[in-house]
User: Which sequence fits this backbone?
């Protein structure tokens, strides 16, 4: 027997439909505005009610990645790829390149290589210049890291450090990142050797080499090196150099200099709560520093880096120590 829907049923259906529609409007607006947390949450709720369009699924994947949900972002990216591969091979190739880069950035070499091979097999349109350039760069990275013994031994770690974008010498960038890895491990000679190889390949290994000299107590040389690098850098490298400048200036006790670098960094690239908290600690503004540093621990980028979280906790400990000393 057919049961009439009735006014209650119609109202319920309309409410569900409107709710999903509202969620999608909210998600899309948040995505366009860079509010990835709201975007991801709203797309997730809308997707629980019904399937997302290709564009919405892609936007949700991007939002997940920006929030530090790397695996979830790649899973959704793979769903986007599966839809694209049936209708638009060139767009699918672009998505495969994106996924290959993401897997390589996680140090997952075999999976990344598989996606790069898929991209190469799909890319047939010579007009896809940007995709072709990025794909060729990733292939060059894998070749370089496979053929060089030093880099091959640290291939996964180096890939996690590299930007994986065209524009710089592959070997130079790889050796620069290898130097950073060795520096953080305390391998001084190995780090200097890697930085020297980076320089030979046309990449100035800063601020890594300056940070290494600073850690060894040669603060004046470190300050001079990072200052010179900042003066001649391009926009891609400037944020990294300014962050290094802040760290070195703080180590030298030059808080005004550190704050100057930080202002330049934040005016062009947005807030850096970790370094802002560090400067506040050095200024003796411990309570403010604790507020800023605790907020930093909630940032998506710190979820993916144990080293970055450890750095924040170290500054938090200094802030607490400062409070205890001040109250004694």
Assistant:
């Amino acid at each position: 027997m057919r049961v009439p829907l009735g006014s209650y049923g119609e109202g319920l259906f309309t409410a569900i439909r409107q709710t999903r529609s509202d969620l999608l409007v909210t998600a899309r607006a948040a995505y366009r505005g860079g509010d990835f947390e709201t975007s991801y949450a709203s797309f997730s709720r809308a997707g629980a009610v019904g399937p997302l369009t290709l564009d919405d699924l892609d936007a949700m994947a991007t939002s997940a990645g920006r929030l530090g949900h790397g695996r979830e972002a790649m899973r959704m990216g793979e769903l986007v790829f599966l839809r694209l591969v049936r209708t638009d091979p060139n767009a699918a190739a672009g998505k495969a390149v994106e996924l290959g880069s993401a897997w390589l950035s996680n140090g997952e070499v075999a999976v990344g290589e598989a996606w790069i091979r898929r991209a190469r097999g799909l890319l047939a349109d010579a007009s896809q210049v940007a995709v072709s350039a990025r794909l060729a760069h990733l292939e060059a990275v894998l070749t370089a890291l496979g053929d060089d013994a030093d880099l091959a031994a640290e291939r996964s770690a180096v890939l996690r450090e590299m930007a994986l974008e065209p524009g710089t010498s592959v070997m130079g960038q790889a050796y620069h990142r290898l130097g950073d890895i060795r520096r953080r491990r305390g391998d001084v000679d190995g780090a200097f050797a890697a930085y020297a190889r980076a320089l030979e390949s046309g990449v100035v290994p800063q601020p890594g080499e300056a940070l290494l000299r600073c850690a060894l107590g040669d603060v004046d040389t470190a300050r001079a090196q990072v200052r010179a690098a900042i003066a001649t850098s391009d926009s891609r490298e400037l944020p990294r150099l300014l962050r290094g400048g802040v760290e070195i200036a703080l180590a030298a006790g030059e808080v005004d200099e550190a704050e100057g670098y930080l202002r330049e960094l934040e005016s062009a690239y947005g807030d850096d709560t970790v370094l802002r908290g560090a400067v506040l600690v050095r200024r003796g503004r411990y309570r403010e520093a604790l507020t800023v540093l605790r907020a930093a621990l909630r940032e998506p980028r710190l979820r993916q880096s144990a080293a970055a979280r450890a750095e924040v906790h170290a500054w938090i400990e200094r802030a607490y120590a400062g409070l205890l000393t001040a109250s004694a």
